[in-house]
UniProtKB/TrEMBL annotation:
Residues 8-159 form the Phosphoribosyltransferase domain. Gene3D superfamilies: 3.40.50.2020. PANTHER family: BIFUNCTIONAL PROTEIN PYRR. The lineage of its organism: Bacteria, Pseudomonadati, Bacteroidota, Sphingobacteriia, Sphingobacteriales. The keyword Ligase does not apply. GO terms for molecular function: glycosyltransferase activity. Residues 51-78 form a coiled coil. This is Phosphoribosyltransferase family protein. Pfam families: Pribosyltran.
Length: 169
């Protein structure tokens, strides 16, 4: 496998995907006053911030951002969330990550919220690689990308969005 990076999505295309996902979230939650975007550290959190910005522009929906830290290498659920879990009760939670590969991160992220009552639990990924080892499905996807296991998808989301890109290597 060569070390050459192939640009899959440029900054403009990434923003188009984020805009579309934001409208889908709004349509799915048109009767809600508030939703919580739980962004998986680090790129999932950055994606959640971008979604929040668009949602606030297109709706009156109150959007709360939560940082979700998961130990993806652990064989059991190890997580930390930056608000009390009880603040999420009876709310719509949208789990946000950059790439869905094996499904472990989404599965662990869902596990964080299993012991509290929720209105709804949804998931967002910018890229779905379709190599699931876990029985998870995403509700909102920017791009489904068929890759071979040896290929790597790298999502770059910088502070100002000018250097954004999705690369295949």
């Amino acid at each position: 496998m060569s070390s050459k990076k192939i640009l899959i999505l440029d900054p403009h295309q990434i923003q188009q995907k984020i805009n579309r996902i934001a409208y889908q979230i709004l349509e799915d939650n048109f009767d809600e006053d508030e939703i919580i975007l739980a962004g998986v550290i680090a790129r999932g959190y950055r994606l959640a911030l971008r979604l929040e910005k668009v949602l606030c522009q297109i709706s009156n929906l109150k959007v709360r951002i939560v940082k979700l830290e998961l130990n993806k290498d652990s064989s059991k659920l190890e997580s930390a969330i930056d608000i009390p879990l009880s603040d999420c009760e009876n709310k719509v939670i949208i789990l946000v990550d950059d790439v869905l590969n094996s499904g472990r991160t989404i599965a662990y992220g869902l596990g964080v919220f299993l012991n509290i009552r929720l209105k709804k639990l949804r998931s967002v990924v910018l890229i779905d690689r379709s190599h699931k080892n876990f029985p998870v499905a995403t509700d909102f996807v920017g791009l489904e990308l068929s890759t071979v296991l040896k290929e790597h998808v790298d999502v770059v989301l910088d502070e100002d969005g000018k250097e954004d890109g999705v690369y295949l290597s």
